[in-house]
Amino acid sequence: MGKSLLIVESPAKARTIKRYLGKDFDVEASVGHVKDLPKSTLGVDIENGFMPDYGVIRGKGKVIATLKKAAETADAIYLAPDPDREGEAIAWHIAQEIAPKKGGAPMMRVMIHEITKKGVEYAIQNPLKLNEDRYNAQQARRILDRLVGYQISPILWRKVKRGLSAGRVQSVALRLVVEREAEIRAFKPEEYWNLKAWMDGGIPPTFLTRLVKIDGKKAKMSDGAAASAAKEELSKEKFRLVSIEKKSQKRFPSPPFITSTLQREASLKLRFTTKKTMMVAQRLYEGVDVEGQPVGLITYMRTDSTRLSGGAVEACREFIASAYGSASVPEKPNIYQAKKNAQDAHEAVRPTSMEYPPEKVKRYLDKDQYLLYKLIWDRFVACQMKPALFDRTIFDIEAGRYLLRAVGSILRFKGFMALYVEDTEAVAGEENEEEEGLLPDLKEGQELKLEKLETTQHFTQPPPRFSEASLVKELEEKGIGRPSTYASILSTIRDKGYVDVEERRFKPTDLGEIVCELLVKSFPKVFDVGFTAGMEENLDNVEAGKRDWKELLKEFYGPFADSLAAAEGSMENVRARAELTEIDCDRCASKMAVKWGKNGFFLACSNYPACKNAKGFSRKADGTIEISEGEKLGEDCPECGSNLLVRTGRRGRFIACTDYPKCKYTRPVGTGVPCPGDGQNPCAGELVEKQSKTGRVFYACNQWPKCNYALWDRPIPRECPDCKSPFLIEKVSQKGTMIRCPKKGCGYKENQE
Predict the structure, then answer these.
(1) In whole angstroms, what is the distance from residue 487 CA to residue 478 CA?
(2) Where do the structural domains in the chain lie, given as residue ranges?
(3) pLDDT tens readout for residues 559-603
(4) Lowest mean pLDDT across 338-347, 403-412, 579-588, 675-684
(5) Which superfamily does CATH assign the domain made up of 150-181+465-570 to?
(6) Are 274 and 261 in contact (CB under 8 A)?
(7) Rounded distance, CA 264 to CA 490, Å?
(8) Active site (catalytic) residues
(9) Residue 455, φ and ψ in degrees, nearest 5
(10) Total-model pTM
């Protein structure tokens, strides 16, 4: 009896699966796609029904030869790339290249949702036919992206600069970022004031109240005068507790992870990029060596379904009972509804077995794998636990025409919160208006003593820029892209220079804004959010067999071709743009003009090329342009004697000479803190400011790579008063700013206002 052949796309996955199938199977890997559209040409025959011109990817000839040879002697061939559209395309192309002659071994598609013995054996025992509808849905997406990207991008090269891309979905994501930036610029802050009062009811503790109503209406104080008047009036009033409301509240656990929520939580809790999250999750899915054997630790990580198998839920409930007690197990399993447009093809992201708690396998995982696995484990276990129970008390206090309120909350039963609480992203500038704590046991009608009154000034805040977490959420809510595409969308707009990342949030560059402006003007329908979401639904219908993929492409391409033809003549040539200003050139007295260059907009002398003077600039809210070359440092350049400036580039702040480009002197921004080295070997370096690829500022030795000392928090050149450490660090969080000692074991810290 011969062997069966099973083909996957990843060598790591092949190694794990081989362990489960044993000697009766050969397991080979295609190492990803084996065929694709050509790189140098469009590769789509538009006139002949949009037929794609697929070819074998360069370097994959040997892989195909190996697969063919294995297929010739196999009794049966199982195609087992990932269980999604992309995997279906890989399986389809492999089948085209290695299909046995008539009468040869049967070829079947298997869908492995979890790489465990049970999961692999179930897939083998329940083989399927290759799904032509699923393949056509992927093929239609690939052709759509090729038609848009390969025909719009060359126009951008001619109008803006070479190397730009105009991806169908990525450009819509960029549009969201650009439009959010426009909202921020247009935002006009409004002043408002809050009033807080601390009360004593004769029984500890004293408690905080907030002014909520004046004359029965919501309290609104728009200036300091109104706040002072309210404070003055309240200081003379008597305070009486007129209402006590007590009620129990439940907080339910979040559903198990789908792709988008996994990416969001990994970003917020672990500071992982979406790309990193998916790379680490792929490794956990494909298999990690545990006690010398490869084990797939999680189910397939590209999913939009919160569905869980009955066996997984039952095993989880048994684990909860043993680890947290039977009181934490709900009477019936918790069931979560999928979103309206979810494909529901796969289970939620969960551990494959309760036999591998995070601490048990920690020594077999690298740091990132452990952190992500623990996040997935905790979320899954928590989703099958009882809700948390709170006792919530609300005091309403009357003082003349004013009403103040205190809110107290006590956790009575932790439930799922003993294990996991979902992170939430704070809105920039938003205050926690309800500081909940313990309230004393008081009675209605009793008078209270005023301990302290305080008024504070605030301003309304603009909407925050998108972070990776919030942009993924926005894409999901608007139906743009699918779980497998979020990571590549975010990576592309960053890698192409369309956005910068500042403090872990996306800010569009000049290039990104220009590209977005041109695309939306010339192709308003293609890059419309609603149209893009509708296209995703159409592709889903192709997969479901409800739409013909060629008809879909034909319907799209007619209007698109008209827009293409019009854009060739109507799209603005940004390279030729020259916005004349009233600023005089300091070299030849000609007027300066705003022009476009490879690094974005800049001020250039209108007398170019006779005068090559160029400068940076900033544009105020009213449109006024002023020269802005950077912050003056107060030092002279050591190479030419000109002034030094602190400038900002794509990789953060740096110090540069004002006589650039004649003098190219640069250096990092220093902190004045000597590098401590590794604690044993002295280091002659200084800690300087740097910026990571994700836009986060950190501080590292300027002698790198000789010294690799680095830290996230800003070092301050002050000696620790307790342990005499040569410097302290400033840690900024949502709770405020704290200065503390970086030395392990020293607890010195000081809170900042």
Answers:
(1) 16
(2) 4-130, 150-181+465-570, 191-252+388-459, 259-382, 575-667, 687-752
(3) 999 999 999 999 999 988 888 998 999 888 899 999 988 767 888
(4) 338-347
(5) Topoisomerase I, domain 2 (1.10.460.10)
(6) no
(7) 13
(8) 300
(9) -110, 145
(10) 0.81
